[in-house]
Amino acid sequence: MRSPDWAVPTLTPSDPPLQATVRVPGSKSITNRAFLLAALTDTGTRVRHPLDSRDARLMLGALSALGARSERVEDGVLVHPRRNGEPEVTVELGNAGTVARFVPPVAAIGTQRVRFDGDEALYRRPIAPLLAALRKLGATIDGDGLPFTVHGSGGLRGGHVELDSSASSQFLSALLLSGTAFDEGVTVQLVGDKPPSEPHIAMTLDLLRTFGARPERDGVRFHVPPGQLSCPDYTVEPDLSTAAPFLAAAMLTGGSVRIPDWPETTTQPGDYLRVLLGELGATVTLDADGLLITGPAGFPGADLDLHEVGELTPVLAALLCFADGPSTISGVAHLRGHETDRLAALATELSGLGARVSETADGLRIYPGQLHGGRFHTYEDHRLVMAAAVVGLRVPGVQVENPGTVGKTFPGFVETWSSMIAG
């Protein structure tokens, strides 16, 4: 269901400097990994402070269809161990890449016939290399893309497999997350180009260790031995990438924004914001109260390789439209296979508001211009809603199409953003 357009509230130079504290919800990437690992334990897991969004609910729904029921508790979700469910089920994926990639290996070790289908936008996102790897590990799967069906046989041999994960690091994470449940564990040898988003690979390995697995890595070779998982209680970190537009607001206004509970150490890609914004001139403070960013009077253009932190691209592209000079973003060709072709969408929408943004082979070239209001199309992509909010903060008249799509990662984003501006 599409939501009405959103008129982004604007701050002018005559307004008082922005001073705000913004709590962001739990990390989607960590939440969905924790939910899946909890379903593979023998006793279940109480997952505290998880993200409550469409993607997270789709993951819980998928796991429930596979026999791992869950229930809401005071501070999160109690996920029970997987049991055999109905003989034939359909898993609805929506547009959730983590669900589409992480759940099929779990279906392969069960006893059900599981049909996977999702939104039209998900049909454009790659998955064939993962399905091919699962077949080599012993799975029976009909189809190379959506819709596809996994025929569970009560277990999976596992063993060694070569995998091209250059289109998405989620292919690799999917095999590793379920590896302890395979008869021989799993050994994945990466081939082809380097996978994007190294932090998400580190995140997968870190969560596996937390849940009792013993993953090993030697360069592009990964091994997870068979074994039992256990983690009775797990707390999810706040989503640092979702904090990006709020920190960008500090950059654009010369004000200050604090994000509470920012971890001192983390595998989340969003932690790169601390380094980057400091390099652009912000004052950065991390203490017991969280992360505090105070924006500079202005900031230069930049040449950014975002291969490892591609999910930050939409907000950073919007921010760089206000830089004092041109910028380039590189290393993110894989964003053409996300919720939408993010590079084409950003070039089209930011240029439509007066910036000069063009695609390159693996990124964007950004020339700041005289920006003006207009309708910003979001292509059912949550990160584009956030990018539009950043532009609208400084440019009157920005109308965001279908802002409700941001519910994928932050259902209360519009209200939180508007409250920050008003407060």
Write a short abstract of this structure.
The protein has 423 residues and is an alpha/beta fold.
- The low-confidence runs, each spanning 5 or more residues with pLDDT under 50, are none
Using only CA atoms, what is the Rg? 21 Å
Oligomer: single chain
Number of strands: 23
- CATH fold-level name of the largest domain: UDP-n-acetylglucosamine1-carboxyvinyl-transferase, Chain
CATH architecture of the largest domain: Alpha-beta prism
What's the total helix number? Answer: 13
Derived from helix and strand composition plus strand pairing, the structural class reads: alpha/beta
Task: Please report the first level of CATH classification, the CATH class of the largest domain.
Answer: Alpha Beta
How large a portion of the residues is in β-strands, by DSSP E?
A: 15-25%
The N- and C-terminal alpha carbons lie at a distance of 30 Å
Strand line-up in the sheet with most strands: 2-15-17-16
The mean pLDDT is 96
Main sheet: strands, sense, barrel: 4 strands, mixed
Principal-axes geometry comes out as globular
DSSP helix fraction: 25-40%
Describe what you observe in this structure.
The protein has 423 residues and is of the alpha/beta class. The protein folds into two domains: 6-24 and 238-422, UDP-n-acetylglucosamine1-carboxyvinyl-transferase, Chain; 28-235, UDP-n-acetylglucosamine1-carboxyvinyl-transferase, Chain (Alpha-beta prism). 31% of the residues lie in helices and 22% in strands. The strands form six sheets. It has a four-stranded mixed sheet, covered by helices on one side. Strands 4-5-3-14 form a four-stranded mixed sheet. Strands 6-7-9-8 form a four-stranded mixed sheet. Helix 1 runs parallel beside helix 3 (97-108). The protein is globular and about 65 Å long.
